[in-house]
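FORM 7B - TANDEM STRUCTURE REPORT

SECTION 1: FIRST PROTEIN
SEQUENCE AND TOKENS:
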Amino acid sequence: QTWRGVQQALKTPSIAIDCRGCGHSDLGDEESFSPDALVEDVKSLVKTNRLLKRKKIVLVGHSMGGRIAMLYAAKYHEDVSALVVEDMDIMRRSVESNFIQSFDERKAIAFDRSHTSLESVKEAFAEIGYPTDMLDKWIGEGRIEKKESGEYWSGVNPAFRALCYRTVFDGYCGTDAW
């Protein structure tokens, strides 16, 4: 969702990926969620995608994806011709620095991305601590969508946010990669 407009404006083919647990990608096992695993997910795509195989890539990362892009470029520098990091620094951010003040990590990890009603989605996000205006924005952007089955799917995954703070932000992988 984030890059669709940018991709349409590019004159060359591009690929936007959802990290594990984002969009329609499965989160996988909570225990295997780590900066290295996220980097290896990108490497797997680079190795297998016909547009990327055996070519140097321009790697763009936004927000937490910026941190992952930095880690990828540090580890697989031979794959990267240019690195663009948007809206991300290299500094450690403690779990407590999450800007959602009453964020309930336990409820975030247990979040079910499929709901029978939009009201159910809203209630689940509110219980975790998300403000209503964020949720309204995501609904407007189509990041929370109604499926043909009538169910609602959240492309936004609070478990992903919780695990990112715990494993990617609350450590020194950004400064190490830099």
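SECTION 2: SECOND PROTEIN
SEQUENCE AND TOKENS:
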Amino acid sequence: WADRWQMEFNAEKCEVIHFGRSNRKTEYWANGKILGSVDEQRDLGVHVHRSLKVATQVERVVKKAYGVLAFIGRGIEFRSHEVMLQLYKTLVRPHLEYCMQFWSPHYRKDVEALERVQRRFTRRLPGMEGRSYEERLKDFCFR
């Protein structure tokens, strides 16, 4: 196919991911070389595991979101609700929601890991000390 369409591939950069437990794991060739097989691949910033579980993607997203929260915590002195809500929507949520339709988490542990980011953010807001998460969320989102 590649020869017919005059498309060149660098076999050193190509990898194969085999999905499913009953996959026969056939070897694939390109330019006379066997392509390497991997368990996980990153495409458009989304990490896909051969089992199609999204745990590694969730871990990476949560780590990145916590980093952004730390940046906001260190760098922002004026912490009004309006400013903090804009910072959260602009800097944190895009990391949590990027390609969510594709890697949509359905295991409770993955959903809770994503939810902890928002819990931590609302807990650090001024005037939210000692309130439950549900109260913080209602007050934070509807101001």
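SECTION 3: OBSERVATIONS ON SECOND PROTEIN
The chain has a mean pLDDT of 89.
The chain is about 45% helix and 15% strand.

SECTION 4: SIGNATURE
Preparer initials: ____
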